[in-house]
Amino acid sequence: GAAGCVATLLHDAAMNPAEVVKQRMQMYNSPYQRVMDCVRAVWRNEGAGAFYRSYTTQLTMNIPFQAIHFMTYEFLQEQLNPHRQYNPGSHVVSGACAGAVAAAATTPLDVCKTLLNTQESLALSSNISGHITGMANAFRTVYQVGGVTAYFRGVQARVIFQMPSTAIAWSVYEFFKYILTKRQEERRAGK
């Protein structure tokens, strides 16, 4: 458990700046043409902190995402594969559905993370301070700009993105688990 927590902290610390740059380049009418142009402009205009505005939101999103993801996968495996045999079809379906449920449930956090990363002008104009900082401020701003439905903007795209990703991850995990377990059993039988 501790290793997983440290891994998540380090992963998100390394990936958060990349996510900021990616999202700013994906914005409608983004002023950035190249990655390094974006990095330099953000650093110059907003400072290093801009790359980590969404860090706590990212961490806060990953915890429920992974919890929901694993619980849903295990529940579906219990329903589709109660004997827990190697069954690629059940692993793919359970993985895809688990990713879909986790993605949908954590979309409000993803919307707030995106707002913190992009500092969109429409949201900034509704924000008194000029910059959106922190998760609570992002949640308030999203609600002010678009109401409750704004928390789920992009949910379909997020679900569609996560489904193949988690289906592949679970099927590969289960495949290697099966191969390694089979080899271990063969070694024991050979002794």
CATH topology of the largest domain: Mitochondrial carrier fold
State the secondary-structure class: mainly alpha
User: Helical content, roughly?
Assistant: over 70%
Report, as a whole number of angstroms, the end-to-end distance.
34 Å
Total beta-strand segments: 0
Catalytic activity: Fe(2+)(in) = Fe(2+)(out)
Solcar repeats: 1-79, 86-179
GO molecular function: ferrous iron transmembrane transporter activity
Function: Mitochondrial iron transporter that mediates iron uptake. Probably required for heme synthesis of hemoproteins and Fe-S cluster assembly in non-erythroid cells.
List its traits.
mainly alpha; Mitochondrial carrier fold; 76% helix
Can you describe what's shown?
- With 191 residues, the chain is mainly alpha-helical.
- It has 2 domains: 1-153, Alpha/alpha barrel (Mitochondrial carrier fold); 156-190.
- The protein is built from 8 helices and no strands.
- It has helices at residues 2-26, 35-46, 55-80, 88-105, 107-118, 121-125, 135-146, 155-190.
- It catalyses: Fe(2+)(in) = Fe(2+)(out).
- Solcar repeats lie at residues 1-79, 86-179.
